[in-house]
Amino acid sequence: MIEFNQVEKKYANGTIALQNINLKIEQGEFVAVIGLSGAGKSTLIRCINRMHDITGGRLSVDDVDVAKLRGKQIRRFRRRIGMIFQSFNLVTRTTVIKNVLVSFVPDLSWWRKVTGVFTTEQKLKALEALDKVGILDKAYVRVDQLSGGQQQRVALARTLAQNPDIILADEPIASLDPVTAKMVMDDFKRINKDMSISVIMNIHHVEVALEYADRIIGIRKGEVVFDGESNRVTKQILDEIYGGQVEEMKSSAEESSANVR
Ligand SMILES: Nc1ncnc2c1ncn2[C@@H]1O[C@H](COP(=O)(O)OP(=O)(O)OP(=O)(O)O)[C@@H](O)[C@H]1O
């Protein structure tokens, strides 16, 4: 379980990005974090794996106080938490399978690190992860020959290969067209349900968030203003989260999906 207890995050320049955050996220939940740009969504999910240090309160993952982890402990802790970014973060000039195998580098003996020789078991695990996201046939294709959606699936496979308990996803579909975005969201949903991996996703597309996530956390100016099941989210709640800008956002989203078509 991920637990935020009166968490605060103040950046060095004095910006208070999060305050009074109290949340409990059980293993296996699919949570979407929504809110306006600058509301604190990225900060919230990046505190979970210590990409950002909190400045107040307590944040724990399975009773481990995240702020107290040091050196090797942080690296070990992060092995349990996959991270997916909008920009995929892949090495595009090499093959898909090599990108997935990267997740095993921390486990390699020093000579394997130097020679870049992976074990047969690791190669099989990498192929298995690619199969789980439906791109096994692309294993030996160079990443720069894949579409954006396929690249995001490679990133997802790389994360799956590390066998995580939690996947943090920071705007994973922001640079994808609506059809591809849906396929990637289907992957997240399947992984969440079949493997009981918690998914905590920061997402701008409200309709997608409501369709896929079981739980919505609405953030406004660094504070949680809504926390509940997706099917409880009303227009009034969205107005509270987005400060009455929902209609405006919907029409600009419709415009951009019309452009894609
Ligand atoms: N490294 C940083 N240093 C100082 N302030 C920061 C830093 N990162 C973010 N902030 C500020 O913290 C607040 C929350 O930012 P954050 O990126 O978490 O918002 P967000 O909801 O994810 O926004 P977006 O949807 O645009 O990504 C904003 O006011 C932002 O300007």
UniProtKB/TrEMBL annotation:
UniProt GO MF annotations: ABC-type phosphonate transporter activity; ATP binding; ATP hydrolysis activity
Cited InterPro entries: AAA+_ATPase, ABC_transporter-like_ATP-bd, ABC_transporter-like_CS, ABC_transpr_PhnC, MetN_ABC_transporter-like, P-loop_NTPase
One GO cellular component term noted in the UniProt record for this chain: membrane
UniProt keyword Cell membrane present: yes
Domain named ABC transporter: residues: 2-246
Keyword Nucleotide-binding appears in the UniProt entry: yes
SUPFAM superfamilies: P-loop containing nucleoside triphosphate hydrolases (SSF52540)
Gene3D superfamilies attached to this UniProt entry: P-loop containing nucleotide triphosphate hydrolases (3.40.50.300)
Superkingdom: Bacteria
A Pfam family it matches: ABC_tran
CDD domains registered for this protein in UniProt: ABC_PhnC_transporter
SMART domains in alphabetical order: AAA
Species, as recorded: Cohnella zeiphila
Keywords, comma-separated and alphabetical: ATP-binding, Cell membrane, Membrane, Nucleotide-binding, Phosphonate transport, Translocase, Transport
Protein name: Phosphonate ABC transporter ATP-binding protein
